[in-house]
Amino acid sequence: MKSLLISLLLLGAGLASGCTLQPVQPWQRGVLAQSEMAWDVDPLMATQRRQMQVSKEAASGGPTLGGGGCGCN
Amino acid sequence: MSARSLGSAVLLLSAAMLFPAAATAVEVGAAAPSLRAADAAGRELSLQSLRGQVVYVDFWASWCAPCRVAMPHYQRWQQQWAALGFTVLGVNVDTVRADAERALKRAPVSFPVLYDPQGQWAETFALPTMPTAYLIGRDGVIHYIHAGFREQDLPALEARILSLLGVSR
Q1: B101 vs A65, B39, B104, B129, CA distance in Å?
Q2: What does the pLDDT average to over B122-139?
Q3: Are strands B54-60 and B86-92 parallel, antiparallel or unpaired?
């Protein structure tokens, strides 16, 4: 019974190790180059949204820059 | 099944999970691994079947810009030196075959291109980067590993290949 418990514990550890991040190998980088892996699927739409956010939120730089500012530019 | 035998089975399983098979890197001076893959026509090709020739195994992908810059140069080598017992062997690692075919339509090549969408060859060779090419002599031994590609590397590369072919410039 004890050995079963230890084994189950080890199995759990083994399964959990599957959740660790595996480095992307050089030949797998094509997947990262696919459009669905991009932050913004449509770059034109993203630019427009950023423009909208800059003007509405008065935060120059849009979502990519930290900090506020007076919003007067 | 007793708890003990069940326990040992689970133990074995967990050990297998904790220590996955590690890929061994291919080095200069080592024999090229024997691998098989199919080309566009579905014909099986292996490095073994090219023994006796000087082989330049080039790992490439459509998303890899330097790989595509290199392609026309490799095609020129193939045309110039095929009669001397030289061949380029392209190994494409694209996961989508159509991407590779589109790239080949833009830069057609006459040397054999194998498709390795699962990355089986890439894993065996443990590519350090993309592109990586392996210069294999007539004896099946790896003589040189070229990681990356720049056009200024060409003269040195060509000199290496020609010396393996036994041609003096």
Answers
A1: 41, 12, 5, 22
A2: 93
A3: parallel
Which residues of B fall within a CB distance of 8 Å from A27? 59, 61, 93, 119, 122, 127, 130
Burial B105-130 (b: 16+ CB within 10 A, else e): eeeebebbbbbbeebebbbbbbbeeb
The token pair at B58 is 């080039």
pTM, two decimal places: 0.72
ipTM above 0.90, yes or no: no
CB atoms within 10 A of CB A29: 15
Measured CA angle at B157 (ends B112, B92), to 5 deg: 30
Q: Which residues make beta-bridge pairs with B37?
A: B45
Choosing among B14, B64, B124, which should be mutated to test the A contact, i.e. which has the most A CBs within 10 A?
A: B14
DSSP, collapsed to helix, strand or coil, labels residue B40 as: coil
